[in-house]
Amino acid sequence: MTTVRRSGLNSTALALIPLAIAINIAIGQLVAVLKLPVYLDSIGTVLTGALLGPWVGLITGALSNIIWTLIGINPPAWWFAPVAAIIGLFAGFAGRAHLFQRPSPRWLSAVIGAVFLAALALFVLLFISQTTDADGFVVLPSAGDLIAQNPLVFLVAIAIGAAIGYFVLQNAGYAGLIGLVTGVVAAIVSAPIAAYVFGGITGAGTDALVAAFRASGANILASAFAQGTVSDPFDKMTSFMIVYLIIQSLPQRLLQRFPNARPAERSTVSGAVASR
């Protein structure tokens, strides 16, 4: 008996790559213009990696940042191409392990939901509580102060997030978890680039967080890393969860066109057996 596995990228799969790059740039630029303390510029990369594999995800992530710079609207972006490539790589391995489709324990989905909504509440409060100093720079309150001043908000956010995770996003735990892990890795890789190439100021909404950590006495590298550990895990968890929802909404007939979303296809060739 001979087993044959067919693989490769069809036209539908290949068409996803430029679409993913466009999604990255469009959403990322909108977030940058709005000066939000996140990025959301890797949704297309995660989607491509999840459906087409780690190496395609890596290439899509890197190309997104390079093209973003070449078209002239985000000059710093190409410096972070290695970070985008790593995000695509992680998404690809997660997709290969079917973590965007494999059911997760409901308790894990509840934990991810609670963390997500609590982090979202923190970012919203940071955004609406920001002020400017005499020089026109954005000043953010500390996260600890916001939590101490609004304990009920965070308790409600945790409870609602856990309920959403447990009852609605019942199987999303793995996607959210790998998003958190990817965010931590992205923060570690991006911090030296942000600190030593740009002095912590890249023109993104996250600059306000860097400034806040600098004002607390941290050096530039520590401030860039602290900003990354605040923004990146939430940002990547959001991106991975969005991709999870996208994949869950796609019909199986379409998913079968993507290598990571279909089981190995096998054909069996049987030979005749002669006996005396």
Would you mind describing this structure in some detail?
- It contains 11 helices and 4 strands; from the N terminus they run βαααααββααααααβ.
- Helix 4 packs antiparallel against helix 8.
- The protein is mainly alpha-helical.
- Mean pLDDT is 88; it is low at 1-6 and 264-276.
- The strands form 2 sheets. Strands 1-4 form a two-stranded antiparallel ribbon. Strands 2-3 form a two-stranded antiparallel sheet.
- The radius of gyration is 21 Å and the shape is globular.
- It has a single domain (2-104, 171-261), classed as Arp2/3 complex 21 kDa subunit ARPC3.
Overall mean pLDDT: 88
Q: Order of strands across the widest beta sheet?
A: 1-4
* Percent of residues in β-strands: under 5%
Q: What is the number of helices?
A: 11
What is the CATH topology?
Answer: Arp2/3 complex 21 kDa subunit ARPC3
* Name of the top-level CATH class: Mainly Alpha
Number of DSSP-assigned strands:
4
Overall structural class, as computed from helix and strand content, comes to mainly alpha
- CATH architecture descriptor: Orthogonal Bundle
* Count of discrete domains: 1
Question: What portion of residues is helical?
Answer: 55-70%
Biggest β-sheet strands, sense, barrel: 2 strands, antiparallel
Order of helices and strands: EHHHHHEEHHHHHHE
- Radius of gyration, CA atoms, in whole angstroms: 21 Å
Organism: Kouleothrix aurantiaca
Transmembrane segments: 12-34, 46-71, 77-95, 107-128, 148-169, 176-198
Protein name: ECF transporter S component
Keywords: Membrane, Transmembrane, Transmembrane helix
